[in-house]
Amino acid sequence: MKVKIAESWENLLKPELEKAYFKQLTDFISEEYVTNTCFPKEEQIFEAFNLCSFSDLKVVIIGQDPYHGVGQANGLCFSVNEGIAHPPSLKNIFKEIETDLGIPYPESGNLERWAKQGVLLLNATLTVKAHEAGSHQKLGWELFTDAVISLISEQKENVIFMLWGGFAKKKGKKINHHKHCVLATGHPSPLSANRGFWFGNKHFSSANNYLKNKGFTEVKW
Questions:
Q1: Angle at the Cα of 99 (from 96 to 105), degrees rounded to 5?
Q2: 216 φ, ψ to 5°?
Q3: CB half-sphere exposure, 26, CA atoms < 13 A
Q4: pLDDT band at 194 (very low <50, low <70, confident <90, very high)
Q5: pTM above the 0.90 mark?
Protein backbone atom coordinates (compact mmCIF):
# COMPACT_ATOMS: atom_id res chain seq x y z
CA MET A 1 0.00 0.00 0.00
CA LYS A 2 1.45 3.34 -1.06
CA VAL A 3 0.79 6.02 1.51
CA LYS A 4 -0.71 8.84 -0.54
CA ILE A 5 -1.16 11.59 1.99
CA ALA A 6 -1.15 15.34 1.44
CA GLU A 7 2.24 16.99 1.82
CA SER A 8 1.15 19.26 4.69
CA TRP A 9 0.31 16.17 6.75
CA GLU A 10 3.09 13.90 5.45
CA ASN A 11 5.83 16.24 6.69
CA LEU A 12 4.29 16.39 10.16
CA LEU A 13 3.53 12.67 10.37
CA LYS A 14 6.82 11.45 8.90
CA PRO A 15 8.16 10.13 12.24
CA GLU A 16 4.97 8.08 12.67
CA LEU A 17 4.96 6.82 9.10
CA GLU A 18 8.50 5.51 9.58
CA LYS A 19 7.75 3.46 12.71
CA ALA A 20 7.93 -0.34 12.55
CA TYR A 21 4.25 -0.85 13.45
CA PHE A 22 3.14 1.39 10.56
CA LYS A 23 5.30 -0.52 8.07
CA GLN A 24 3.79 -3.81 9.31
CA LEU A 25 0.31 -2.30 9.08
CA THR A 26 0.74 -1.08 5.50
CA ASP A 27 2.22 -4.43 4.43
CA PHE A 28 -0.80 -6.23 5.89
CA ILE A 29 -3.32 -3.82 4.36
CA SER A 30 -1.62 -4.13 0.96
CA GLU A 31 -2.10 -7.90 1.11
CA GLU A 32 -5.70 -7.50 2.27
CA TYR A 33 -6.55 -5.30 -0.73
CA VAL A 34 -5.05 -7.92 -3.06
CA THR A 35 -6.77 -10.95 -1.54
CA ASN A 36 -10.08 -9.48 -0.30
CA THR A 37 -12.57 -6.76 -1.13
CA CYS A 38 -11.83 -3.86 1.20
CA PHE A 39 -13.11 -0.33 1.64
CA PRO A 40 -12.63 2.51 0.92
CA LYS A 41 -10.82 2.37 -2.43
CA GLU A 42 -7.09 2.18 -1.84
CA GLU A 43 -6.52 5.68 -3.23
CA GLN A 44 -9.07 7.06 -0.72
CA ILE A 45 -7.65 5.54 2.47
CA PHE A 46 -6.12 8.90 3.46
CA GLU A 47 -8.84 11.04 1.87
CA ALA A 48 -9.64 12.78 5.17
CA PHE A 49 -6.13 14.28 5.14
CA ASN A 50 -6.08 14.99 1.42
CA LEU A 51 -9.27 17.07 1.51
CA CYS A 52 -8.55 18.93 4.76
CA SER A 53 -5.11 20.51 4.98
CA PHE A 54 -3.41 20.87 8.35
CA SER A 55 -3.33 24.66 8.02
CA ASP A 56 -7.09 24.88 7.30
CA LEU A 57 -8.11 22.43 10.03
CA LYS A 58 -10.63 23.81 12.52
CA VAL A 59 -12.97 20.91 13.40
CA VAL A 60 -12.26 17.20 14.02
CA ILE A 61 -15.04 14.61 13.95
CA ILE A 62 -13.98 11.11 15.02
CA GLY A 63 -15.66 7.98 13.68
CA GLN A 64 -14.90 4.33 14.34
CA ASP A 65 -14.24 2.49 11.08
CA PRO A 66 -15.42 2.82 7.45
CA TYR A 67 -18.76 1.59 6.16
CA HIS A 68 -18.36 -2.02 5.02
CA GLY A 69 -21.12 -2.10 2.38
CA VAL A 70 -20.40 -1.92 -1.35
CA GLY A 71 -20.00 1.63 -2.67
CA GLN A 72 -20.52 3.39 0.65
CA ALA A 73 -17.14 4.38 2.13
CA ASN A 74 -15.17 7.26 0.63
CA GLY A 75 -12.44 7.79 3.22
CA LEU A 76 -14.35 10.32 5.34
CA CYS A 77 -16.08 9.26 8.55
CA PHE A 78 -19.90 9.12 8.38
CA SER A 79 -19.75 10.14 4.70
CA VAL A 80 -21.00 8.12 1.71
CA ASN A 81 -20.50 8.45 -2.03
CA GLU A 82 -22.93 10.39 -4.22
CA GLY A 83 -26.15 8.54 -4.95
CA ILE A 84 -25.78 6.14 -2.01
CA ALA A 85 -28.63 5.83 0.51
CA HIS A 86 -27.84 7.56 3.78
CA PRO A 87 -26.94 5.11 6.59
CA PRO A 88 -28.89 5.53 9.86
CA SER A 89 -26.16 7.46 11.72
CA LEU A 90 -25.76 9.93 8.88
CA LYS A 91 -29.53 10.43 8.74
CA ASN A 92 -29.51 11.33 12.42
CA ILE A 93 -26.59 13.74 11.92
CA PHE A 94 -28.52 15.55 9.19
CA LYS A 95 -31.70 15.58 11.30
CA GLU A 96 -29.82 17.22 14.17
CA ILE A 97 -28.37 19.84 11.81
CA GLU A 98 -31.88 20.44 10.46
CA THR A 99 -33.32 21.19 13.90
CA ASP A 100 -30.20 22.92 15.27
CA LEU A 101 -29.54 25.27 12.36
CA GLY A 102 -32.73 25.16 10.30
CA ILE A 103 -30.83 23.80 7.29
CA PRO A 104 -32.91 21.58 4.97
CA TYR A 105 -32.05 17.87 4.95
CA PRO A 106 -29.54 17.41 2.08
CA GLU A 107 -29.79 15.03 -0.88
CA SER A 108 -26.12 14.11 -0.88
CA GLY A 109 -24.49 12.17 1.94
CA ASN A 110 -21.02 13.00 0.62
CA LEU A 111 -19.33 15.15 3.26
CA GLU A 112 -16.48 16.36 1.05
CA ARG A 113 -18.09 19.79 1.33
CA TRP A 114 -17.30 19.77 5.06
CA ALA A 115 -13.76 18.47 4.63
CA LYS A 116 -12.91 21.26 2.19
CA GLN A 117 -13.93 23.81 4.84
CA GLY A 118 -11.45 22.47 7.39
CA VAL A 119 -13.38 19.60 8.98
CA LEU A 120 -11.19 16.51 9.48
CA LEU A 121 -13.51 13.52 9.19
CA LEU A 122 -11.27 10.95 10.84
CA ASN A 123 -12.11 7.30 11.34
CA ALA A 124 -10.07 5.63 14.10
CA THR A 125 -9.52 2.70 11.72
CA LEU A 126 -9.03 3.73 8.10
CA THR A 127 -9.89 0.47 6.31
CA VAL A 128 -12.29 -2.47 6.60
CA LYS A 129 -12.97 -5.79 4.89
CA ALA A 130 -16.24 -5.93 2.95
CA HIS A 131 -19.24 -6.90 5.11
CA GLU A 132 -17.06 -7.39 8.21
CA ALA A 133 -17.40 -4.44 10.59
CA GLY A 134 -14.29 -3.86 12.68
CA SER A 135 -12.23 -6.36 10.70
CA HIS A 136 -9.17 -4.08 10.53
CA GLN A 137 -9.26 -2.90 14.12
CA LYS A 138 -6.33 -3.49 16.51
CA LEU A 139 -3.80 -3.83 13.69
CA GLY A 140 -2.14 -0.44 14.18
CA TRP A 141 -4.56 2.07 12.71
CA GLU A 142 -5.60 3.18 16.20
CA LEU A 143 -1.98 3.95 17.11
CA PHE A 144 -1.70 6.05 13.97
CA THR A 145 -4.90 8.00 14.54
CA ASP A 146 -4.01 8.52 18.21
CA ALA A 147 -0.77 10.10 16.97
CA VAL A 148 -2.75 12.31 14.57
CA ILE A 149 -5.00 13.54 17.39
CA SER A 150 -2.01 14.18 19.66
CA LEU A 151 -0.25 16.10 16.88
CA ILE A 152 -3.29 18.31 16.29
CA SER A 153 -3.68 18.92 20.01
CA GLU A 154 -0.03 19.87 20.44
CA GLN A 155 0.53 21.97 17.32
CA LYS A 156 -2.81 23.73 16.84
CA GLU A 157 -4.98 25.91 19.04
CA ASN A 158 -8.74 26.43 19.26
CA VAL A 159 -9.68 23.29 17.31
CA ILE A 160 -13.19 21.93 17.90
CA PHE A 161 -13.25 18.19 18.59
CA MET A 162 -16.65 16.52 18.26
CA LEU A 163 -16.64 13.26 20.23
CA TRP A 164 -19.73 11.18 19.56
CA GLY A 165 -20.14 8.02 21.63
CA GLY A 166 -17.89 6.10 24.00
CA PHE A 167 -15.30 5.12 21.42
CA ALA A 168 -14.66 8.71 20.33
CA LYS A 169 -14.66 9.94 23.93
CA LYS A 170 -11.79 7.55 24.73
CA LYS A 171 -9.81 9.23 21.94
CA GLY A 172 -10.46 12.49 23.75
CA LYS A 173 -7.77 11.59 26.29
CA LYS A 174 -5.22 12.66 23.66
CA ILE A 175 -6.64 16.21 23.55
CA ASN A 176 -5.54 19.21 25.63
CA HIS A 177 -8.93 20.45 26.82
CA HIS A 178 -7.46 23.81 27.88
CA LYS A 179 -6.33 24.71 24.34
CA HIS A 180 -9.26 23.32 22.40
CA CYS A 181 -13.06 23.12 22.38
CA VAL A 182 -14.26 19.58 23.11
CA LEU A 183 -17.93 18.78 22.43
CA ALA A 184 -19.01 15.33 23.63
CA THR A 185 -22.35 13.56 23.27
CA GLY A 186 -23.87 10.18 22.43
CA HIS A 187 -23.35 8.43 19.11
CA PRO A 188 -25.76 9.30 16.27
CA SER A 189 -26.60 5.63 15.71
CA PRO A 190 -30.30 4.78 16.20
CA LEU A 191 -29.51 2.71 19.31
CA SER A 192 -28.04 5.73 21.06
CA ALA A 193 -30.20 8.42 19.43
CA ASN A 194 -33.46 6.67 20.24
CA ARG A 195 -32.45 6.50 23.90
CA GLY A 196 -32.06 10.28 24.02
CA PHE A 197 -28.27 10.50 23.76
CA TRP A 198 -27.95 12.32 20.42
CA PHE A 199 -30.76 14.67 19.44
CA GLY A 200 -30.65 18.17 20.86
CA ASN A 201 -26.87 18.23 21.38
CA LYS A 202 -26.57 21.44 19.28
CA HIS A 203 -22.97 20.65 18.38
CA PHE A 204 -23.21 22.37 15.01
CA SER A 205 -24.45 25.73 16.29
CA SER A 206 -22.04 25.47 19.25
CA ALA A 207 -19.13 24.89 16.85
CA ASN A 208 -20.07 27.85 14.68
CA ASN A 209 -20.51 30.12 17.69
CA TYR A 210 -17.04 29.12 18.92
CA LEU A 211 -15.49 29.72 15.49
CA LYS A 212 -17.22 33.11 15.22
CA ASN A 213 -15.99 34.15 18.68
CA LYS A 214 -12.42 33.19 17.73
CA GLY A 215 -12.60 35.13 14.46
CA PHE A 216 -12.75 32.10 12.17
CA THR A 217 -15.12 31.48 9.28
CA GLU A 218 -18.13 29.39 10.32
CA VAL A 219 -18.70 25.99 8.71
CA LYS A 220 -21.52 25.72 6.20
CA TRP A 221 -22.97 22.48 7.50
A1: 75
A2: -100, 160
A3: 15
A4: confident
A5: yes
